[in-house]
Design brief:
single chain, 4 helices, 3-stranded antiparallel beta sheet
Length: 132
């Protein structure tokens, strides 16, 4: 597996705005996860004994991702969902994922984005940080 070229958000948004339900959408939100230098254990748990991250190995279960997307599409007020995940050996600042959610109101879109990204990160992917 090798890393994939990142998608264009301008293109994604243009395509979303031609979708059959586009006239129902009042807001789009994009999540762009990238490889950061600070270890997950430090950011999430306050660990102080971590080494800087130099890269990451990233993979995912496509079937589980599709299930998560299908579930997000059933959220109240959500009319558009698109996900792209990278894979393989990633360097600092490489894109890990993009998630685009379109819905009727800000609360619905924020809730759906939070739920979908959380589900992908917690149930669908394997991330292995690389250290010097």
């Amino acid at each position: 597996m090798s890393k994939q070229p990142s998608p264009s958000m301008d293109q994604w948004l243009a395509e979303a705005k031609t979708h059959a339900d586009a006239k129902k959408v009042g807001m789009y939100l994009v999540h762009n996860g990238t490889v950061r230098e600070t270890a997950k254990a430090m950011v999430r748990n306050g660990a102080t004994d971590t080494q800087p991250v130099t890269g990451m190995y990233f993979s995912y279960d496509a079937a589980k991702v599709e299930q998560a997307i299908a579930q997000a599409r059933t959220c109240d007020g959500i009319y558009y969902v698109r996900v792209w995940l990278n894979e393989g050996d990633l360097a600092l600042q490489d894109d890990i994922m993009y998630v685009l959610i379109g819905g009727d109101t800000r609360p619905h879109v924020i809730d759906a984005l939070q739920q979908l990204v959380g589900q992908i990160k917690n149930e669908c992917v394997v991330e292995s940080e690389l250290h010097a």
